Amino acid sequence: MTPKSPKHSEQGMPGSLIIPRSEHSISRKQIDREALKVLYRLRDEGHTAYLVGGGVRDILLGKTPKDFDISTSAKPAQVRKMFRNSRIIGRRFRLVQVFFGGGKLIEVSTFRRQSEFDVNGIETDTVLPSNNTFGDSVEDAFRRDLTINALFYEIENFTVIDHVGGVKDLNDRVVRLIGDPQRRIIRDPVRMMRAIRHAARASFTIEPATWEAICLYRDKLLLCPVSRIRDELFRDLTGGACRRWAELAIASGLFFVIFPFCREVMIEVPDSEKHCRFLYDMLEVINRLVLEERVVPEELLFSVLFLPWALCDPEFMEVKSQKESYLLASRLRENFNEALTYLNIKRSLQDSVSRCLATLPLLVNLKKGETWPKWLQKKSYFKKGLLFYRLYMEVVDGKPVHSSELTLKAPAETKPPVVKRPSRGGLRGAAFAPGVKGGVFGFRKT
Q1: pLDDT value for 102
Q2: Residues 175-258, CATH architecture
Q3: SS3 per-residue string spanning 339-404
């Protein structure tokens, strides 16, 4: 792509670029049909609307996007009125989800303005408050996190619009935070997780100023709501690049902000490099299964992350009986409850992770031609424990886990909300209502 000369400059950042159809690779054939319907409908109603974010980035990288998000000048209420098959969601910022058949949805957001804290350069150590301040497309581009996620595609002239230098960073394979990295991270520390995730998924490098800011302010992540950290972490683990994510997260120290109890076994002991390599190999197995479009249960993902820590216990692999496995699970559960309190992870998930880890040495020591005791097969945790054992043995023995062994169901597709009729408040139905017992021709007896 060879962009035209800058059209104008904004806030000292690279000038805006208008890239004509002949100089970029995006075609409408690569855009989801429902996304195009939403774009054209918004345009026909007199609003500005662009395809934005990961959809534009992935097509320019030659990938097939998973999501197609749209930004528009229309307010949420206006978008909701245009599309009956939609709903308004969001607390930090209101946006509209437009539903289509097969559980497909298109998210439509209104152009947002940069926060007054960033515009005025006000210094603060607190995370930005939520706001619903609307703006124009240029302001919307500058309030986004990464330059490679701030590109717009418009359907009127089929051009790509770049206000922040994202095209150059795509060509240079660089992940860069928009604006001053230190200030942007202090405003919203979750941006550190997003930068690392996108660098891992695209095999990009993180530009020096952004990387320095991540290493300097990694502890600020704990200022964010726990729910946001958990959501971002799950995306990191299920994106098909969790090995590279772990390498970057450990190198920056962000991994140990999230899981501080892992620092000792992966940094401070003589065999720390060995433990890290084992974790990377386990995550590589997860990557393969994810790329084969298999659903890896959440408890197995966490079990993989915590396995190097568990293996440092000299008694861990000595478990050979049901009683010893039970005692080990109880001990692990107590440790997790203490170490993961701040993440507010459900007790049921902690129990499942503890059970998976405690079952592993039992299966390793009971291995006899892949036949297992009947008492063990009857246990509710046997199925997931066996799967975790196979993940472990792929790393140890090199025997691949076949994707068909992941028989757990995929999460249900998102469907439009069901609109229920208002309750009658316990009142009796009409006298001629069908299905009413008694009376003549369906009329109620009085």
Answers
A1: 85
A2: Orthogonal Bundle (1.10)
A3: HCHHHCCCHHHHHHHHHHHHHHHHHHHHCECCECCHHHHCCCCHHHHHHHHHHHHHHHHCCCCCHH
